[in-house]
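Table S2 (text version). Query chain:
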Amino acid sequence: MRIVKEFSKQEVRISIFNWNNKYILKYEYGPMEQTYKIPEMDVLDENDLDSFCEGVFFGEVISRFKEMGQSFQKQIQNL
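Corresponding structure-token output:
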């Protein structure tokens, strides 16, 4: 597995890997993680992957983390 890029944005840790003819985008926030796999053939240039770290898509990742966090907290309270 090759690390393409790692950085943080809005408290979200973003790691981009290249492995097995796919790019793997991993977003981490606290105890939660979202992972997306993109076929290598769908990406013309690695710099195109930056679009997954901004705009509408990244906003939806943040929203999903909020929803995941709420579900997680509810479950913890029910233990």
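Notes on Table S2: The beta strands are 2-9, 12-19, 22-29, 32-39. The chain has one helix and four strands.
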